[in-house]
Each structure stands twice: as structure tokens, then as C-alpha cells.
Amino acid sequence: MKLPHCQELITKVSKGVLYITLNRPHKKNAMNLALVNELISVVDCVKDKRSIRVIVIRGAENNFCSGGDISGMNFDGASETHDPMWLFNRTFGKMITLVNSAPQVVVTVLEGVVLGGGIGLACISDVAIADINTKFAMPETRLGIVPAQIAPFVVSRIGLMQTRRLTLLGESIYGEEAKALGFVHYVTQNQDELETQLKNVIVKIMLCAPEANALTKKLILQVGLVEHEQLLDEAASYFCNSLKNEGKEGTAAFLEKRSASWIN
Amino acid sequence: MKLPHCQELITKVSKGVLYITLNRPHKKNAMNLALVNELISVVDCVKDKRSIRVIVIRGAENNFCSGGDISGMNFDGASETHDPMWLFNRTFGKMITLVNSAPQVVVTVLEGVVLGGGIGLACISDVAIADINTKFAMPETRLGIVPAQIAPFVVSRIGLMQTRRLTLLGESIYGEEAKALGFVHYVTQNQDELETQLKNVIVKIMLCAPEANALTKKLILQVGLVEHEQLLDEAASYFCNSLKNEGKEGTAAFLEKRSASWIN
Amino acid sequence: MKLPHCQELITKVSKGVLYITLNRPHKKNAMNLALVNELISVVDCVKDKRSIRVIVIRGAENNFCSGGDISGMNFDGASETHDPMWLFNRTFGKMITLVNSAPQVVVTVLEGVVLGGGIGLACISDVAIADINTKFAMPETRLGIVPAQIAPFVVSRIGLMQTRRLTLLGESIYGEEAKALGFVHYVTQNQDELETQLKNVIVKIMLCAPEANALTKKLILQVGLVEHEQLLDEAASYFCNSLKNEGKEGTAAFLEKRSASWIN
Fold first, then answer.
1. Residue ranges, CATH 3.90.226.10, chain B
2. Which residue in A103, B20, B95, C113 has a CA-CA distance of 20 to 30 Å to A195?
3. Does the pLDDT of residue C80 top 70, yes or no?
4. Is the pLDDT of residue A219 over 60?
5. Cβ contacts of C45 within 8 Å, gap of 6 or more
6. Which domain of life is it from (chains A, B, C) (predicted)?
7. Does domain B9-206 bear CATH number 1.10.10.10?
């Protein structure tokens, strides 16, 4: 598979999984505009490729991401649309929105620090795995800055209640609390466990039919945005579509006690 | 009280409680279209009967419900409205939507397996009690099918974050985790505790005034659907309505240190 | 600073913090209309004063608030707008809505009882600290009354799922469960710990820039109310505004390893 050439990311495809590594370890993988644009290109490039069933996002050298790279910021820009700083900031939100709706199952592997924009990415992953010592924080307001493209995704992930506290106090939390608050699904005790958990998650995803998963993800992302009865009407069409394609194979495999065709 | 005649359900009314048992134990109470339509009829039949204050839903022979009965599925149907499979699927959502807004307090007793459509029902109960060993899962995507009429109710119940994981991995969880994730309110250690918890819940519901409960439930179901100020305006009217009827009796009983008239 | 004169509240300003004490201890600080109107006046009075960065709300004599004062209720009022009881009730919702959107960080200190309207206030605080023995309940329906101006804020705080149970059963919960359900952020073991936690929270808030905090709070309160892309557009403007004012100072202070100007 031909992926866009990247400077700030390392990409690899193996057995239906696209692995993306944020690769600016000298800055704990702080995201500059180039990195953000590369993420957009790569995820967009595979959006119609159902042979890619999982996207794993992690950071180089055992840190996930320390946020936006403030060394690239120009503090005297205007606050209007098309101002370079406005666009710089807005592009983060564009990227997170795009990854949020990727038809693949998106898995984030959260080690070291997960700060600011790093939290934004974690918040839209379908499965998030964190080490017990991973640090999560939105320190923006301590720097006098609004976590503008991040906070809305945090509210969607963990609710307004804890977002108030974390954004307005700039407090740090760690693995177990991140799980309790609803940032992450799994917390592991060390690097070995982390890699094992990642493998197990991928195995489970591969048990699920790719088109059924893509339709299911599309459906659940619409809850609250599309009127209830209308959404259930659409959902019934998704059901029928899945039933006559993958569903026919899946239920046949189940009754015949064999693996379905999409399982390696 | 005259209830609709049922083939797939057992119904009983006792002391203000309507007990409904899903009764297809040979299929772990998988729901076919007949069962779904019977549930609709029974719940609809009591919707204006305020003498019924609680609806308890459980499954025969210590299983709640194993989902939709796939043996009734026709895999070659079209995905258009009025297609029989479309209607079959859509009727589940219709039933869950109806039970969700029943003016009575709906209690689910969750034993054995709670799969697919069973989770949908659990997700709209006002009080859910599960055994510690009860298994919850949405295995649909492993069969190549979209959990179409279920997933939206799961998002409303436990949020998008855990719904992503459970639908896209098909993972099973058990009693304690189901409580931590927000599926159920109470987890009990064995059958005796389960029945005791159910009795205690019913006792507490009976302390609350039936009309006040019905109005309160109507109110909280509208949050997010009706504009905030408008909802609070309506709520103030609910308040005044309750105050001059049950509220007069309830506060008098409180001041006179006696039981209110609605307490047996 | 000149604050409105109050009969039912004690107010004090010290080092950027406005302390408000509900002061009707003979009624466990039950709120009458006068108290509610005073709260509105005081919070409204400081809304453009960025020198006030924190509002701490607590109750006199180790109780937070026992709800609305039912001794002031007239049970025979009509349920129409402009009826005195309608207005009495609606004013609670007006007050809670106002405090919810205060640009300052609102901290509630929850001791003793937090009932009915007291829960409403707790539910809109940015940071809530409770003692382990603090009792939370919405007993309204046991009195035959709808928790009309409260329940919608409870749904927004802890979700529909637990709101169903708490409103329809009238059940009480205590500190640890209140934290697990998402009412409060911190639970302390005794009075000393409570005061220490309050001090620590204030210290952390003071590390954050006041305007960045106000903009961040404004932003997160709009999630779900403003369309996603439009909200991110606005957010990018907030970002640019913060960057060229407090952000310039904050990042300079960070790079120079000194305290920012807003830290005492």
C-alpha cells in the first residue's frame, strides 16, 4: 500500500493494521503543523481501504505526545480567521475530527506524557491503552492559553464535570485515574503488559467484520446529532446492509462452528 | 386488571407492580418478533394506569435475554423501509423507545446472559440489578451484523467512550464492570441477594408519589432534547402541578409524621 | 469591593476569592426566595470583575444546604407562569443557571446535608469537595413534589442513568459514592482535610491565568449546544486572543523559569 511520504511520522502497514508513530522524540513528540498535516494525509488516504482494519497511534521513545509545539507559535497574530495562528490552531481540531470518524478502529497507546493536544487524540480513540505511570494533563491555562481545539473533545469523552476541574486547575492525573475518569479503557503495569494488551485488542478487533465495524462506528458517532427516530430508521438500513453481506457469512460460520472469512 | 394475552411473555400484577418475564428459556429468552410486539402491547396497555407504579422485567430460568433470535432472520432482504427484515429490526428500537418512556419505574433483573437486544432493554431501565456473574456483550459485529437498534441506547446509557470498545471489539464484561461502566445500579453476590435487592428497590419506589415520579421521569428524559430555559419553564409547571396535588398530602404527612396516602 | 448587602448570605472577599456562606443554619441552610435572589445579585455583581478569580460556596455550621424551604410554599397556587409558586420555583433554576456560567472558578464545599436544591448548586460547581459523611439526596418525590429545577442539572452532571435511580427512589448516597457517580471531585476524611483540600484547590486555580480560565469555561459550556465545526472555529479565536495577551506572558515566564504575573 502506498502511503503519503512523512517527515514527522513513521508509518507501517502489517496484517491489516496501520501503525503510526509520532516521531519527534526530542520534543516528546510535540505536534507541529507538519506533523498534524501528515496525520491528516495518512488517515485520509486509508479511509476507503477496508483492508486496513485498525489504526494504532503511539509516540516514539515511550512518550505519547507533549501537546502542540509552542516554539512554532507567533504571539502577535490577529484572532481572525485566516490569521496564521488561527489556522495553526484550527488545524489541530480538523485533524482530531478526522481521526475521530476514521472507519477503522483507532487504538492509542499512551506512554510517558499525554498533554494538551495529545489528550485530544487520546479522546477520540476507540480503544485507549495507558501505562499506570502515564501522565495526563491540560496545562494550557497555566501558560495563559485556552486549550481550544482540545477541550471540546475532552468534554465529549469524559463529560463536562471532570473537564471543568482538569482545564481550570491544570491538574495532572495518572493511569488509574485516567481510566476511572473515562479517558482510557485499559491500564497496564509495565511495558510488557502494554504490548500484550495491544496485541489482544488487535486480535479481538480482527474477530469483528470490517464493514459491520465501520457501519457501527458511523452509527454511534451520530447519537445526539441525528434525531432519535430518524437515527433508528437509518440504523435499520445499516442492519439490513450488514445482514445480506457479512452477516450471511458470519452467521453461517457461527452455525458451522468455523471461523468467518474475515478472521486470519 | 386486563392485560393483553401473551405467548412469549408471562405477566403478573401484584401490589402495584407489573411483573413481565421473557419466556423463551430454550433460547435463553432470545427475542423474536412476537415477543417484541407483546412487550409493546403490555407496556402500552398500562401507560395511563397510575395504579401500576413499577414494571419489573426479567427472563425465565435465570437468563435475562440472549438478544434477537437470529433463526428468524432472512439474509436476502432488501435494506429499504417496509422490507420485512428492516421492519423486524426497527421494531426492536420501537419497543425499547416505548419502554424507555413508560411513566412507571422500570426495573430490570439481569441474570445469566444480557446480549445484544437484551442490553438495549437493560439500558433504558430506571433501575438495573445484576448478579455478579451476569455476562454482558454485544457480539453482533463478530457475526458480521450491526447492533443497529441497540448501540444508540448504549451510547445514551454509558457514553460513547465505552460503547466504542464494546461494539467494535465484541468484548464481554461481567457484573462489577457493568456497574463501573454505568449499565447497572446494583450488583449482588447471589440469587438471594438479588431478590432482596429487588424487594428493597420496590419498597423505595413505593415511598415516592406515583404522579410526581411520572412527571420527574418525563422531565429528565427531555434534558438535551428541549432547550434549557424552555425545559426549566415546563419544569416549574410540573412543580406547581405536583405541589397542589400529591405535594399537599406529602408535606402534610411529613409534618404530621405519618405515612403519605400512596404508601401501603 | 462593594458587594450587595445580604441578609441570608455572608460574603467575604480575600486574595482574589469571593467566599459566600449560605447562612440559615437553623434550617440547615434551606433556601428561601430571599437567599436565592441574594445569590443571584452577588454572583452577577462580580461577573465582569476578573480580579475575583474564585467563588467558594459553602453553608453555615457544617451543613451545605437542605434544599428549598418548604415552609414558604403555598400549595394552592395555579401552575401558570406568573403564579407566585411558579416564579418561586423557576427562580431556583435561574440562579443555578447563572452560577453555572460564572466566569470565575466556582468551588463548592459540601458538608453535612446536600439535598434537593443543594444538589443543584453542587452540580454546577467547577470543583466540588465533599466530606466522606456528607449526605446527598433528592427526597422530593417522597414528598409528592417534582425536583423540577434541580433534576435537569443532575442529568447534566452525572448522566441520565443514575439520575433515574436517585430521583425515582429518593435514595441517599454519601461522599465516596457521590464521587464515584460524578457529583464531586474530591472526598476528604475529616474537617481538617477538607479545609486543606480547599486551600490546595485555590492554589492551583491561582496558577492558571484568569482570562484563559474564563474563556476555557465559556468554551466547554458550549459543547453540545453549538455545532461542532462552528465551536472549533470560535475556539480558535479564543486561542488567538489568549495567546497574544496572557499567553505571551505565560510562555515567557515558562521559558524564563519564573512565575507568571497572575501568580501571587
1. 9-206
2. A103
3. no
4. yes
5. C3, C4
6. Bacteria
7. no
